[in-house]
Amino acid sequence: MSVPTELGYTAKHEWVLVKDGVATVGITSFATEALGDIVFVEVPEVGTEVTLDDPVGEVESTKSVSDIYSPVKGEVVEINESLEDSPETINSAPYGDGWLFRVRISEDPTGLLSAEEYTKLTEGEE
Q1: Residue 48 falls within a domain, yes or no?
Q2: Residue 38 parent element (H or E)
Q3: Helices (H), 16-88
Q4: For residue 125, what pLDDT is reported?
Q5: Of 66, 72, 77, 106, which is the most exposed, with the fewest CB atoms less than 10 Å away?
Q6: What pLDDT does 2 receive?
Q7: Residue 82 in 3-state DSSP?
Q8: How many domains, the chain?
């Protein structure tokens, strides 16, 4: 399982990359492997205010439905519209084209795990 070192992670299996005050959010490859084939994704609408650790959407797979939690606080400024027609992109490129949404952060994220910390966390869950 690859865990990119430039990202921050949550214990709920979201990843975040903050650049120029905007956080790109997705779910980890660990999560996609646990979910199986993703068939539908619901993300917050542009303009939605999100709060740290609040559920903001869902990912539906052939195995289950899982909540998506916001790893940051701020306003949603962009969603990955291509996922509406191709949700399986999350499985094939969770850290690339499978990103979920972008948030203009209102405060710096806290409590994110490093790649090393996230790897240790998931080793106990496999």
Answers
A1: yes
A2: strand 38-42
A3: 29-35
A4: 66
A5: 106
A6: 79
A7: helix
A8: 1
